[in-house]
Specification:
5-stranded antiparallel β-sheet, two-stranded antiparallel ribbon, alpha+beta, about 35% helix
């Protein structure tokens, strides 16, 4: 036995087992950290996409508000927005299926009530498990707060109080 302990020429089996054990422990720890990081990064990506969708909807509503303030109300709207943010134009008219929450025709997108804009959902959202809408309530606030249009959930735009509601694959913003 003393001869084995004094022999410094090679690696013993015990040293090899210890080295392999430490290597396995370090590898498992690194894999666990990477797996945990990938799980945490998926949720903020969806929320970031949802926030971008709300900003995009706010920008579209600004177009309607500015067109309405013009003396030729709604005549300066781009052709794609005449039937609402998600409406389809065919043969000069707006088309939509009854109860369509993805592509509804909405000739009055600034009227009080709930308006569905499912076409603005982020691509990562499953359309059958996601919903995007905004609710407009008129208010007596007539300040110009266009800079606040990207903030959620409540936005005041020239006297309109707008509340966005978005859910994507079970996550709500």
């Amino acid at each position: 036995m003393r001869q084995l302990l004094k022999n410094r020429a090679g690696v013993t089996v015990l040293e090899g087992v210890i080295a392999l054990g430490l290597l396995a422990l370090i590898t498992a720890g690194a894999f666990g950290v990477l797996l945990s990081a990938s799980r945490q990064s998926s949720v903020p990506d969806i929320r970031e996409e949802m926030t971008y969708a709300v900003e995009k909807a706010g920008d579209l509503l600004k177009v309607y508000i500015h067109a309405q303030q013009n003396e030729f109300a709604n005549t300066h709207l781009p052709d794609g927005l005449v039937c609402g943010p998600c409406g389809n134009i065919s043969n000069g008219g707006c088309t939509s299926n009854a109860g369509d929450k993805i592509y509804p025709a909405d000739r009055t997108p600034l009227a009080s009530g709930t308006h569905y804009v499912g076409c603005l959902l982020p691509p990562v959202c499953d359309r059958s498990n996601s919903e995007f809408s905004y609710t407009i309530a008129s208010s007596n606030i007539h300040e110009n707060k266009l800079a606040d249009a990207s903030k959620e959930p409540d936005v005041n735009l020239n006297g309109y109080k707008i509340t966005f509601t978005i859910s994507c694959n079970g996550y709500e913003l």
